[in-house]
Design a protein that fits this description.
Length: 612
């Protein structure tokens, strides 16, 4: 939530900042702003997207080789020009950008008002820049020290960058619970919320740790301290990020690109972890902590949103294949209960961004209770990846469309590999079934391609139901979480109200909603409970519901009674979710496009939810 980027060096800062903000726009897009230092400090802010800021600043002076930019997802205060960042101190000497929430801002604001400070915006961030100004004025400190002292009084989450007009050859940055990466170039630094604005200038980065402050300056120096004043040695890492993966290429939207990439990303997730011909599967993170993981009393999956849906599939997989008991928790609920977590539990955190505040907090809580923490993450070097004891990257590459697609299938692939690995080693699945699953898993990428080839048919079905105001998604077993995920994809990008239900639960309430205007999307592949779901479809038809079914190739019973039917290739039941989700992603995409929605940046959403 909120993207920040800053530059200091010999280049013109403004183009670097605008390009960086466009890369970070997935984190928030309700307003944007820049501050450029060139003798004077010029601040330009606009409600709307980065391109609105660009249009606004077109005829303005943007020269200067020190600057910073921000793209906002509003927490405190409406999205408008005044609440947009950067925020400027009362004496107009300092400007500041911020990602996170200052929880004690009201108390600080009250105290600052008593000292004569006047505020323009409704944000928590403006309080921070006034607080630094106050410390700087009172204690006559250099800017980095003023920031450090001010932060000792702050409760909350932040990644900030501060510019001081009187100290124009440095930038000061700090973080706590919100990400900040420092790119180190030749006598230049690019600071950002993630590595995407950095990668085209340098591969060398430092991930700032919680409660650390960094000072970078024009002569190429980087110094890091903790907030309690201990000098730290910067740990420089090499980025492994391909710039092409940050571009849309020939696609109009990232979401469509990412849906189509799944043939490759699922294969990338399996690469080096499975070989059906040689009969092995090996998930490195599991091997490393095998005894603790295989003998765990319980797995607790902590996640949010789409990642939580992937976790639900993990529950079916681990319970069926490895006979390990699983609980799947919304991280936001887990962290505020007083949960029973023991040393012999394993907490599995699922997160695309690796920055979701609730998931991170749930992990920290479980860590305090001495459970083993395992991360299944996409973003390399992210906070969750660095908090866990062990884990696996899904290797899906940057996911930029706000609606998660390839990260979901990456998470499910990884959970499947883990469940097969553990099931075989624990002796809970026979060798013949194990080998069969490995073979089937290796076939999944080409089967995903077969489904993607049905795009025209799916687009046609989308055109038939695009005007609906509600939709119901039904599935059983492994396809129940897919029903939830299908409904979430539809509502978040097309704004059609949609609900996912276990098919049998329909009779306990939602059936009352069904009439001829209600599209009912039924995921009914040919596995356990197939006969039962046939009856559920009959019940929908009897109430004139419009049935769109996802069935296994060759299906007869459900096809006959459906209004529209999408066939997907056959596979073993535990692998079905990897296929059945694909047509639902495409269906949502096409419906949203036909309704004129911006699928990559749906309203009110942000990709990386770094506030609770
Ligand atoms: C929906 C979506 C969100 C995320 C959720 C968790 O398409 O993308 O529901 O899944 O915000 O995010 P991560 O996986 O980054 O922790």
């Amino acid at each position: 939530m909120c993207g920040i980027v800053a530059y200091i060096g010999n280049k013109q800062a403004y183009p670097v900042l605008i390009k960086g903000l466009k890369r970070l726009e997935y984190r928030g897009y309700d307003s944007a702003g820049v501050a450029i230092l060139n003798g004077d400090m010029r601040v330009y802010k606009r409600k709307g997207k980065v391109k609105d800021l660009e249009t606004y600043a077109k005829d303005k002076v943007t020269r200067g080789s020190v600057g910073m930019g921000h793209t906002r997802w509003a927490t405190h205060g409406k999205p408008n020009h005044i609440n947009a960042h950067p925020h400027v101190s009362g004496n107009e000497r300092l400007s500041l950008i911020h990602n996170g929430i200052i929880e004690n801002y009201a108390t600080l604001k009250e105290a600052l008002i008593k000292l004569g400070h006047e505020f323009e915006s409704d944000t928590d961030t403006e309080v921070l820049v006034h607080l630094i100004e106050e410390v700087q004025k009172r204690e006559q400190l250099p800017i980095e020290e003023a920031v450090r002292v001010a932060l000792t009084k702050v409760v909350g989450a932040y990644a900030i960058v501060v510019i001081d007009k009187e100290e124009p050859s440095k930038l000061v940055a700090a973080r706590k619970a919100s990400p900040l990466v420092i790119g180190i170039g030749d006598n230049e630094f690019i600071l950002a919320s993630d590595a995407t604005p950095i990668v085209e200038y340098t591969q060398r980065v430092v991930y700032l740790n919680d409660e650390e402050i960094a000072v970078v300056n024009k002569s190429g120096d980087l110094q890091i301290k903790t907030i309690d004043d201990k000098i730290q040695t910067p740990f420089i890492e090499e980025l492994d990020l391909n710039i092409e993966r940050l571009e849309k290429g020939d696609y109009e939207f990232f979401m469509l690109k990412e849906i189509n990439e799944q043939v490759k990303t699922i294969a990338d997730c399996m690469r080096g972890r499975i070989n059906a011909a040689e009969g092995w599967v090996n998930v490195g993170g599991v091997t490393e902590y095998y005894e603790r993981i295989a003998n765990a009393k319980r797995f607790i999956v902590a996640a949010c949103g789409t990642s939580w849906h992937a976790g639900l599939i993990g529950e079916y997989l681990f319970e069926e294949l490895a006979r390990i008991s699983v609980e799947v928790e919304y991280a936001s609920e887990l962290r505020y209960r007083n949960p029973i977590i023991n040393e012999d539990d394993v907490i599995i955190a699922l997160s695309q961004s690796g920055e979701t505040a609730d998931t991170l907090a749930a992990l920290e809580l479980a860590k305090d209770k001495n459970a083993l923490i395992y991360g299944i993450v996409n973003a390399v070097g992210s906070s969750i990846a660095r908090t866990t004891h062990s884990g696996s990257y899904i290797h899906a590459g940057p996911e930029i469309g706000v609606a998660s697609t390839k990260a979901f299938t990456g998470q499910v692939t990884l959970l499947t590999l883990m469940a097969i690995h553990l099931g075989y080693k624990r002796g809970t699945i026979p060798r013949s079934y194990y080998l069969q699953l490995l073979n089937s898993l290796e076939n999944i990428p080409s089967q995903v391609q077969e489904i993607l080839d049905k795009n025209d048919q799916i687009q046609y079905i989308a055109s038939e139901i695009k005007d609906a105001t509600n939709a119901l998604y039904l599935g059983r077993g492994y396809n129940f979480p897919i029903a939830l995920e299908g409904a979430l994809k539809l509502k978040e990008i097309s704004y059609i109200h949609a609900e996912g239900y276990p098919a049998a639960e329909m009779k306990h309430g939602p059936i009352a909603l069904i009439d001829e205007n209600m599209p009912v999307i039924v995921i009914a592949t040919n596995h356990s409970a197939y006969e039962k779901i046939v009856s559920n479809v009959q019940e929908v038809k009897a109430r004139k519901g419009k049935v769109i079914s996802i069935v296994t190739e060759g299906d007869k019973a459900i096809k006959e009674i459906s209004d529209y039917c999408i066939e997907i290739p056959d596979t073993d039941e535990p692998l079905t979710p990897l296929l059945s989700v694909i047509p639902l992603q495409l269906l949502s995409y096409h419906i949203a496009i036909m309704r004129g929605c911006n699928v990559d940046q749906p309203r009110n959403l942000a990709k990386s939810v770094t506030v609770e």
